[in-house]
Amino acid sequence: MALWLIVVLVILLGAYIRFAPSDPAKWHVAPIGDQDRDLDGGVVRVVETGPDGLLRLDSFARVSDRTSVLAGSVDEGMITYITRTKVIGFPDYTTVQQDGDTLRIYARLRFGRSDFGVNRARVDEWLALLQP
Fold first, then answer.
1. Which of 8, 22, 9 is nearest to 90 (CA)?
2. How many C-beta atoms surround the C-beta of residue 115 within 10 A?
3. Crossing angle of helices 118-130/53-61, nearest 10°?
4. Strand order from edge to edge, sheet including 78-84
């Protein structure tokens, strides 16, 4: 009986992780900082891209696997993307803001304490695609 209870709890937790609403007021916030930082559950990157960095990054972020836009637009100068893991659907949030020629990126997890470097890898991949 205890085994069934554990199985049901795991299924319910998985469903909550997959279907929990994402509040733009909480996650669509401007990245803060003027230097790169690696965090336990995410990453901050600040790069000089020219005034069209957000437009270029948006073009391939939107077609990245399991990634969608939570809020914002290129015209607003800031976009927050949700990228979900393949199996369970853990959401990671990446906010990208254009500030003149500077692009500020803040990628972070929602659940847990560590993202095992997946946010850093994704952001660094996106930044590599920005290179000429």
1. 22
2. 23
3. 120
4. 37-39, 42-48, 102-109, 91-99, 78-84, 67-73
63 and 17 in contact (C-beta within 8 Å)?
Answer: no
- The band of 17, judged by pLDDT with boundaries at 50, 70 and 90, is confident
Q: How many angstroms separate the CA atoms of 73 and 27, rounded?
A: 14
Q: How many angstroms separate the CA atoms of 49 and 40, rounded? A: 26
When pLDDT is cut at 50, 70 and 90, the band that residue 67 belongs to is: very high
pLDDT, tens digit, 9 for 90 and up, residues 72-94: 999 999 999 999 988 888 999 99
Topology of the domain comprising 23-130: TATA-Binding Protein (3.30.310)
* Domain layout of the chain by residue ranges: 23-130
Kindly report the backbone phi and psi dihedral angles of residue 3, in degrees, each rounded to the nearest multiple of 5, phi listed first: -65, -45
